[in-house]
Amino acid sequence: MLSDYTPDEIRALLDIAARLKDERRRGIPHPLLQGKTLGMIFEKSSTRTRVSFEAGMIQLGGSALFLSKHELQIGRGEPVEDTARVLSRYLDGIMIRTFEQEKVETLARFSSIPVINGLTDFAHPCQVIADLLTIRERKGGLEGRALCYIGDGNNMANSLIVGGIKTGMAVRVACPAAYRPDAGIMAWARENGDFLCTQDVRAAAAGADVLYTDVWASMGQEDEAEARREIFAGYQINAAALEAAAPGAMVLHCLPAHRGEEITAQVMEAHADEIFDEAENRLHAHKAILVYLMA
Ligand code: CP
Ligand code: NVA
After folding, report:
1. Which residue numbers are catalytic?
2. Which of 159, 168, 187, 192 is 20 to 30 Å from the Cα of 67, by its Cα?
C-alpha cells in the first residue's frame, strides 16, 4: 500500500521512473526484468493501466499476461486465496484492478510474489506515482507545493492525499459533504501534514499550484451517474477555479475525462500538454514500480 511507503521510498521510485524515462528518450535499452512475467488481472476496464503495464514489461525485457475476470476461474468463484497460491507458482508479479480493496490485500497475503494495486474502489496508487512525477518535472519539486483536488472523494482522492502529504505537499480537497475521502485517510493527513477538506471550491483552489480532478461517477457507479451530475454540479475545474489558483497552476486529470462535467473542454484543451504528459508518465512510473518490486 502507498501508505506503507516512506517518503524516501516514494522519492526513490520517482528517481527510478525519471531515469527510465530519460533512457527511453535516448533509446538506451533497459532489460531489467528479462525472463520475468507479470500477470495482470482486470475486473474493470482500462486503457492506460493495461497498456502501460504491458508495454512497460516488454520494454523491460519481460512479458505480461492480460487476465480478464471472464477468462479466469476467479470470475466463476474460485477463491482469491487459491488463485494467489497458484499464480505465485507461475509468475513473478501480479497487478490487479478490482472493486474491493480487501481482495487485493487477500491476494497479496496469499501470494509469494509482489502484488500491485492497479485500482480498487478505495485507492489508485500507481496513478499517483505518475502524478507526482509529472508535478515534480513541471514544478521543480513537490515539497511545499499546494495540490487541490476538486470532485468526488473517491479512490483517486484517497491516494492523492496519501502521496501528496507524504511528499510534503499541502493537499486541499473540495467535495460535497457526503462524498468526502476516507475518514481514516483524512485524519492521518491532518496529523501528518497540511490538509484541508471543504465544500468551497474557490477556498480549496486558492493559491494552488496544481488543480486535479476525476470523474464524478467511477467504474461501478454507472447507475448513479445521473444523480451524481446534480450532486457534483459546480465541483469542476473551470476558468473560475483556475483564476483562484496560483498563476501558472497546472491541471491534471487521471483520465478518462468527461468534458463539461468535472472539467470544462476549454480547460482540458488548454492544459492538454500537462494531462497527456501525466498519462505518458504512467508508463515510466509503472516501469519503476515493476523494477522496484521485481528486479
Ligand atoms: N487513469 C487510469 O487508470 O486509466 P485507465 O482506467 O484507462 O487505466
Ligand atoms: N475514479 C475513477 C478512476 C479511473 C481511472 C474510477 O474508479 O473509475
Report:
1. 97, 124, 127, 214, 254, 282
2. 159
Could you tell me the end-to-end alpha-carbon distance of the chain, in angstroms, rounded to an integer? Answer: 19
The predicted model gives 2-30 an average pLDDT of 97
31 — phi, psi (to 5°)?
A: -80, 65
CB 99 within 8 A of CB 121: yes
Pocket of ligand 1 (CB under 6 A): 46-49, 119, 127, 254-255
Residue 126 beta carbon below 6 angstroms from any ligand 2 atom: no
Question: CB of 173 within 8 A of CB of 161?
Answer: yes
Distance CA 46, CA 282 (A): 13
Alpha helices in the chain (DSSP H): 7-25, 48-59, 80-87, 101-110, 125-139, 155-166, 183-192, 201-205, 225-231, 239-244, 265-270, 272-294
Return the pLDDT at 126: 98
Q: Is the CB of 219 under 6 A from ligand 2?
A: yes
Separation between Cα atoms, residue 144 and residue 169, nearest integer Å: 5
The CATH T-level fold of domain 2-124+282-294 is Rossmann fold (3.40.50)
Note the pLDDT of residue 274.
Answer: 98
Ligand 1 atom 3, closest CA = 49
| Whole-number Å distance between alpha carbons of 163 and 183 | 16
Q: What is the mean pLDDT of residues 180-206?
A: 98
Ligand 2 atom closest to Cα of 254? 5
Residue 207 is predicted with a pLDDT of: 98
What is the per-residue pLDDT across 108-150, written as a single tens digit (0 to 9) for each? 999 999 999 999 999 999 999 999 999 999 999 999 999 999 9
Q: What is the pLDDT of residue 233?
A: 97
Tell whether domain 127-279 is in CATH 3.40.50.300: no
How high is the mean pLDDT of the chain?
98
- Can you give the pTM of this predicted structure? 0.98
